């Protein structure tokens, strides 16, 4: 396994899907915050839109433009060959993502995305993890609000607890935010593919090595009143607990027996019950193509909340960790989770892979496994809170 040097390829970082809603936010974040010597490019299928984006970026004259299209695998291969790190916002990933993963795994380029799609992550593990290990490529999925605060938050919590003992961590998510058309399209697509998602999970389980002498679980749990956070706790069927579980499998610091549960925290019971009913109704509608199309038309991909709305948005993920006779309360918090903070997390993760001194990893890895302390410190410096609220 070998890491690429600065001179191996023309660009340290290529942002694919840069003209989409989150892509453009990420491009502007990079232009404002990346090191001056970053060699980077924006990529997509419409060179005219890419050129207009570049003109809007501070210092944009130094940013490259690359044409690449998910329907033309050769252009994705060329993109991967030009970059040390490739960050892509082009989803739904289960429909449009695999060719770029394959190109990065085959050429040794590091890969990041924003997927919250378990089926896609499992399929990419089965099909491309082995090749990525051969070439040294790091394939890092879920590098936005799915699942950085949860993955790094659980990692941060574990590091406050004793080593070598059984540990439990519960995460409680609260947020006030809107979402974009691309997020809606991905969510509806995922809800419509329940059977395929289960099949992909079973296939992954057949390929993953067993953990001798260690146990890691992430059970769904049941709705309950969580006195430790003063809210009703509703199990969240997102990709986040799966990512936390994979970090725990990869890192012995999580102890010989680790359990993680993931919840939405809701103060008022009627609101909690209404939320459960609404999610159930949308999930049922997503099974019917006409209803799915109608829902998708409510918000087109590329659309998203205004800057004013995003400025008022926020998130908080509180964790309760226990083990070895100790109990710790921690929090990861920030601003608009779906867009401004996701762009920040995504950009900082890409820069972390490109520049930081990291543990030697390859293949499909998580943010905690590949970047743990380094990415946590980057995000703290960028204004995202990681704090110990209380311990005993």
What key attributes describe this structure?
single chain, 392 residues, alpha/beta, eight-stranded mixed beta sheet, 22% strand
Explain the layout of strands and helices:
Blueprint: E1 11-16, H1 21-33, E2 40-44, H2 47-56, E3 64-67, H3 73-81, E4 83-88, H4 93-96, H5 98-107, E5 110-113, H6 118-135, E6 138-140, H7 148-158, E7 167-176, H8 181-191, H9 194-207, E8 215-217, E9 224-226, E10 231-235, H10 240-250, E11 257-266, H11 269-286, H12 289-297, H13 307-312, E12 314-323, E13 326-334, H14 340-355, E14 363-365, H15 367-381, E15 385-391
Parallel strand pairs: 1-2, 1-4, 2-3, 4-5, 5-6, 6-14, 7-11, 8-11
Antiparallel strand pairs: 7-12, 9-10, 10-11, 12-13, 13-15
Helix pairs in contact: 1-14, 3-5, 5-6, 6-9, 7-10, 7-15, 14-15
Report the end-to-end length measured between terminal Cα atoms: 43 Å
Q: Which percent band covers the strand fraction? A: 15-25%
Low-confidence stretches: 276-288
Based on secondary structure, the structural category is alpha/beta
Helix and strand pattern: EHEHEHEHHEHEHEHHEEEHEHHHEEHEHE
Binned, the helix content reads 40-55%
**What profile does the largest beta sheet have?**
8 strands, mixed
Number of strands: 15
Counting H and I runs of at least 4 residues, what is the number of helices? Answer: 15
Mean pLDDT across the residues is 88
3D shape: globular
- The radius of gyration over CA amounts to 20 Å
Describe the model:
The chain is an alpha/beta fold and 392 residues long. 45% of the residues lie in helices and 22% in strands. Helix 7 (148-158) crosses helix 10 (240-250) and helix 14 crosses helix 15. Residues 276-288 have low confidence and may be disordered.
């Amino acid at each position: 396994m070998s890491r690429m040097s600065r001179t191996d390829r023309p660009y340290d970082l290529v942002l694919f899907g840069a003209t989409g809603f989150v892509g453009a936010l990420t491009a502007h974040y990079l232009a404002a915050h990346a090191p001056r010597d970053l060699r980077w490019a924006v990529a997509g299928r419409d060179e005219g839109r890419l050129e207009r984006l570049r003109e809007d970026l501070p210092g944009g004259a130094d940013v490259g433009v690359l044409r690449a299209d998910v329907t033309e695998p050769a252009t994705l291969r060329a993109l991967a060959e030009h970059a040390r790190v490739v960050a892509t916002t082009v989803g739904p990933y289960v429909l449009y993502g695999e060719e770029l993963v394959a190109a990065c795994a085959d050429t040794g380029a590091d890969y990041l995305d924003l997927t919250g799609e378990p089926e896609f992550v499992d399929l990419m593990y089965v099909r491309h993890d082995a090749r990525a290990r051969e070439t040294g490529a790091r394939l890092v999925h879920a590098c936005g609000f799915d699942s950085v605060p949860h993955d790094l938050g659980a990692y941060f919590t574990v590091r406050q607890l004793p080593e070598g003992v059984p540990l439990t961590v519960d995460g409680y998510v609260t947020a006030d935010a809107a979402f974009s058309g691309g997020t809606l399209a991905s969510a509806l697509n995922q809800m419509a593919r329940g059977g395929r998602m289960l099949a992909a999970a079973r296939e992954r389980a057949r390929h993953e090595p067993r953990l001798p002498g260690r146990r890691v679980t992430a059970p769904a749990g049941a709705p309950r009143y969580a006195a430790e956070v003063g809210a009703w706790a509703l199990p969240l069927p997102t990709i986040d607990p799966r990512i936390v579980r994979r970090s725990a499998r990869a890192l012995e610091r999580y102890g010989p027996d680790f359990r993680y549960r993931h919840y939405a925290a809701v103060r008022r019971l009627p609101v909690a019950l209404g939320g459960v009913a609404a999610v159930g109704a949308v999930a049922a509608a997503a099974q019917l193509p006409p209803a799915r199309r109608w829902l998708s038309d409510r918000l087109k991909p590329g659309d998203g909340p205004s800057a004013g709305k995003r400025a008022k948005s926020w998130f908080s993920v509180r964790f309760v960790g226990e083990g070895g006779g100790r109990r710790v309360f921690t929090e990861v918090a920030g601003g608009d989770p779906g867009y401004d903070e996701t762009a920040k997390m995504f950009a900082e993760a890409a820069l972390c892979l490109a520049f930081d001194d990291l543990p030697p990893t390859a293949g499909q890895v998580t943010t905690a496994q590949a970047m743990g302390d380094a990415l946590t410190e980057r995000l703290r410096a960028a204004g995202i809170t990681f704090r110990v609220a209380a311990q005993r």
